[in-house]
Specification:
- There is one protein chain.
- The two termini are 22 Å apart.
- This protein has eight helices and 16 strands.
- The radius of gyration is 20 Å and the shape is globular.
- It is of the alpha/beta class and 258 residues long.
- A hairpin with a 6-residue loop joins β11 (162-165) and β12 (172-176).
- It has one domain: Spore Coat Polysaccharide Biosynthesis Protein SpsA, Chain A.
- InterPro entries: G1P_cyt_trans, G1P_cyt_trans-like, NTP_transferase_dom, Nucleotide-diphossugar_trans.
- One of its GO terms (biological process) is O antigen biosynthetic process.
- Keywords: Nucleotidyltransferase, Plasmid, Transferase.
Length: 258
């Protein structure tokens, strides 16, 4: 099975970083968040990826073309103009990198990579969110439902402390940090899709989250896989710091690999 990763947006809310690099290459623990997402899929046995590039996509292509060299010990023979990789440390990934256009919407990006997906069920997610999700369980759930699409529903992480008010309404009876269970249920990405979903996308200007998903709902073809564990996107600099702190302290819940 293949996993499609949408990695072409501008990432404007993270402009402190995305002015110089695409959002999927913003690093958490010296590794791009794109790498973290792919490791999550690898933990469930998925090692074939189709990456939808757009804004500064050439930098994502360069990252993967230089990946083996960057992560290996080298012998450079200048007299023979050759390079030997002595110690290879790299993932068993097959990565197809597709230029899906600078301003193409999410649905349009998915439509553009259809030729690389064949006629089999595939996964799809965004290039800026991580979770301790069991992808295999989501796929099994999708197959059991028999629908065209399954979306992962997650609780939006709370950003502020929660106040419990006294009966009078003008005193605080208790205070606690807001937990993940306090937030609304939202689209957490990590879709499982049938190739027929592509027929619901008419062109580059289609947002996958709008017309295609609404159509799936109307036709009773969208299942919901509930993930009650950790989920966090990297929408702002604050989000990046949250993820960075978890990684540096060795408590990153999405690290499902050894």
């Amino acid at each position: 099975m293949k996993a499609v990763i949408l990695a072409g947006g501008y990432g404007t809310r993270l402009s402190e970083e995305t002015g110089t690099i695409p959002k999927p290459l913003v690093e958490i623990g010296n590794r791009p968040i794109l790498w973290h997402i792919m490791k999550i899929y690898e933990a469930s046995g998925i090692t074939e990826f189709v990456v939808c590039c757009g804004y500064k996509g050439h930098m994502i292509k360069r990252y993967f073309t230089e990946y083996a060299l960057t992560n290996a010990d080298l012998t450079v023979d200048l007299s023979q103009n050759s390079i030997t990789l002595n110690r290879r440390v790299s993932e068993p990934w097959q990565v197809t990198l597709v230029d899906t256009g600078q301003d193409t919407m999410t649905g349009g990006r998915l439509k553009r990579v259809g030729q690389y997906l064949g006629d089999e069920t595939f996964c799809m997610t965004y290039g800026d969110g991580v979770a301790n999700i069991d992808i295999r369980a989501a796929i099994t759930f999708h197959n059991e439902q028999g629908t065209e699409a399954t979306v992962t529903a997650v609780q939006q992480p709370g950003r502020f402390g929660a106040l419990n008010l006294a009966p009078s309404g003008n005193r605080v009876s208790s205070f606690r940090e807001k937990s993940i269970l306090d937030g609304p249920v939202i689209n957490g990405g990590f879709f499982v899709l049938e190739p027929t979903v592509l027929n619901r996308i008419s062109g580059d200007d289609i947002m996958f989250e709008e017309e295609p998903l609404r159509g799936l709902v109307q036709d009773d073809q969208l299942s919901v896989y509930r993930h009650d564990g950790f989920w966090q996107n990297m929408d702002t600099l604050r989000d990046k710091h949250v993820l960075q702190d978890l990684w540096q302290t060795g408590t990153a819940p999405w690290r499902l690999w050894a």
